[in-house]
Amino acid sequence: MGESKRKPKPRPRRCLRQLTFVVGVVLVVYCLLFVYNAPDANYGTTSWSPLRKTSTKLTPELLNNLSLGEDECKAAFPGLTKEIDDTVSKGPFTIKPSGDLGPLQGRIKDGQLYILHAQRRNDLSQDMLNARTASLHQLYRAILTSPSPLPDTIFTLNTGDAPFGTALQYSRAADPLIGSKDPNARSFLIPHFSFWSWPLPFVGSISSSSAQINALESSYLPNASHPNASWHNKISRAVWRGTAWYNSVHSPRLRQNLLQVTKEKPWADVQVLNWTISSSDTKQKGAVNAIPISEFCRYKYIIHTEGVAYSGRFSFTQMCKSVVITPPILWMMHTTHLVKPVYSGYLLGRDKRDKKGWEPAKRAMRGWALGYKKEEANMVFVEGDWSDLEETVEWLEKHPDVAEGIARRQREVVVGGGYHSPAAEACYWRAAIRGWASVMRTEGEWEELGVPFEAFSLSLDMGQ
Ligand SMILES: *[C@@H]1O[C@H](CO)[C@@H](O)[C@H](O)[C@H]1NC(C)=O
Ligand SMILES: *[C@@H]1O[C@H](CO)[C@@H](O)[C@H](O)[C@H]1NC(C)=O
Ligand SMILES: *[C@@H]1O[C@H](CO)[C@@H](O)[C@H](O)[C@H]1NC(C)=O
Ligand SMILES: *[C@@H]1O[C@H](CO)[C@@H](O)[C@H](O)[C@H]1NC(C)=O
């Protein structure tokens, strides 16, 4: 019995064990490496890259040219019409006459614009009327400057804050599950009315702000007389101005939470707008603590909040060389797809540290997939309750080159790519009309022509 115990083990078996051990070690090392790299491997799952470079030289003449042809538009602004193309790819849909209480409907025929139904002016607030007037003029301008005829069509235009039903409108839900029940619903995104004008104190139009922002940003670029000018001289604080109560049903405490986490924090310049009007002078400026929209670009970090739906300020802050920090965006506007977000959880290394693994909220994932590497990103998405805002700003302050890169890429894509230029806006409107007309079908009885826009624009109520 004892003898058999002392019997040497057969060699092949020992070899096998050693081999198993080595293979095991290799597997463990491989897995560790793989896990370590996993977040990077998951990045960039969105299928479209907004950084595809144009071969067209984007001169000031070209960017102000409202009459670029369809092919010239495509070559100059690659990916500009992504939202339209996606909506067209959903296939045909039908519209019915909305009547005088529904959204505005109009007809384009032989290059002329007619209004078929519209809410009466008296039924609209001044803000709603301004939005509608601006958008109709934008459409009219794009028709008049078209180098080739646009197709005849009938359209529905919703200039309200929230997307609704099937229309040309300012935003759509990023989450495809929101409002997905109606198979006939289509949002054809249009440029915000601020591309025409936004008559708010300290706002104005995209093009006037764009010029102001260009001047401001160039003051942070070194030249012979100011060799030390630099992005790093921007204000190292996160800025926000707004009203506390303006929240969405999807994130009802968004603004209150923001005020809480930034209260008395040296890294934050977050203030509720104070509309106290103490003299005729402040009346001109609106809120006493407001700052002109271009002046937001003086800050390294801009906190973005959406409201009931999209926020019109977004198109402005997209032009700054600043790091926009926001919870995952819920409402897409016509160039929101240029955003390449990096999630704060990835910046802060949560996915490696936290045993349970960190991941973005499901709703964000459906709209935005997994985000981008910090070397590719042009915006930062933080937790929806702002709980990691402070850590994120601290992290960016400790990694100023990463912060500068995120800020630089935003301005490079949006402004450098000319996506908010007058030329791109006209290109976009015409593409939206062509896209809409290609899949729109009508039902019901329609008026032959309606009121010519030229008459409608002279304060004529429908039918008067
Ligand atoms: C604008 O573009 C069109 C189409 O390329 C061209 O024919 C026209 O000359 C351009 N206008 C200006 C002012 O550059
Ligand atoms: C250099 O930059 C400063 C600060 O922005 C500006 O005032 C000045 O006009 C610039 N000088 C030249 C030669 O561009
Ligand atoms: C720019 O920075 C350098 C190095 O910090 C310094 O020596 C120089 O005086 C600065 N120049 C100006 C014009 O401020
Ligand atoms: C708002 O501004 C007015 C005038 O400057 C000031 O008297 C008032 O205290 C401010 N209110 C708040 C809540 O800061």
Automatic annotation (TrEMBL):
Residue stretches spanning the membrane: 21-39
GO MF annotation terms: transferase activity
Domain Glycosyl transferase CAP10: 149-443
InterPro entries named among the record's database cross-references: CAP10, O-Glucosyltr/Glycosyltrsf_90
Keywords for this protein: Membrane, Transferase, Transmembrane, Transmembrane helix
Domain of life, per lineage: Eukaryota
Name of this chain's protein: Glycosyl transferase family 90-domain-containing protein
Organism: Immersiella caudata
